[in-house]
Amino acid sequence: MSTTQTATETSQLSLTGGTIHHALSDVVKTNDWSDFKFTPIRESTVSRAMTSRYFKDMDKYAVADVIIIGAGSSGLSAAYVICKNRPDLKVVCIESNVSPGGGAWLGGQLFSAMIMRKPAHLFLDEVNVPYEDEGDYVVVKHAALFTSTVLSEVLKFPNFKLFNATAVEDLVTRPAGNNGEVTAAGVVTNWTLVTMNHDTQSCMDPNVIELAGYQDDGSRDTSAKHGVILSTTGHDGPFGAFTAKRIVQIDGNQTVAGMKGLDMNHAEAAVVKMSGEYKGVGNVYFAGMESATLHGLNRMGPTFGAMAVSGIKAADEILKHFAA
Ligand code: AHZ
Q: What keywords tag this UniProt record (predicted)?
């Protein structure tokens, strides 16, 4: 073996001429794969297999217990904790992008490694994401390892549905109390490509997902827990900070303060502290960088502990709401 040969290369070389094992080893008997064939299918069968499930999901999640807006690192972390603790709750996540994950496919400035300050590593332990322990902080070798792992765990929960390439365009609100208070009662959705084209086409009306807790006539069903919205749409941008910007128009009492300059130590603690229930419009929670934008907190740049932990904190509050 040459001194530059890797262990993988060595094992590959030792396989040459030996038996190769892969998923199709028992199906393919000929050396040139000439006996390989797929089971037959009709094109319409493929179409029905997809669309029937999608529309069944749209029907099932037309009323949801938890609506998470945005599938970035904070939203996915929250989804994991809620789904794991309460398999009976219907949790739906609306993600405007085709690819869920938000900014968590890379660490920072397009670098691969993801940094998390302790004790956020405990969440990595829970979802089995390996890391290098650097003492006060840990390093995941590629941010995509964190994101793909949490995403795949969340997608496996039977009570979770992700509608990606779908944008939240507005909130559904209803009166709550006699003094002009309102509560969130759902979200207004559209295909993201439609949302991006409202200026180029005539009216393209949206769809709605309603929060649980209402009777057929729209009045409050007091025997049922009211559903909640958790918004994790990130800092201000073309789609970002969506609910923060919308809710202050509804609330009238608060403003979107805008995120402040980078300060890792202050930002991460503050984002966790300020994430959770929004006081002003009922049944709305925030986590992640949207909290920083709403409350005028520092940004933390390329360190992701507060994203996971703020998602977990918001999830903790939401679970307490459903447990009460
Ligand atoms: O596509 C957005 C992204 O995946 C999605 N989103 C935004 N608006 C939406 C809408 N409807 C549906 N109206 C929407 N989806 O929300 C997701 C937000 O993910 P993110 O990674 O941007 O947010 P996060 O708060 O989870 O993580 C922020 C990561 C950052 S930014 C930052 C800095 O700038 O200093 N530092 C960190 C760690």
A: Iron, Membrane, Metal-binding, NAD, Thiamine biosynthesis, Transferase, Transmembrane, Transmembrane helix
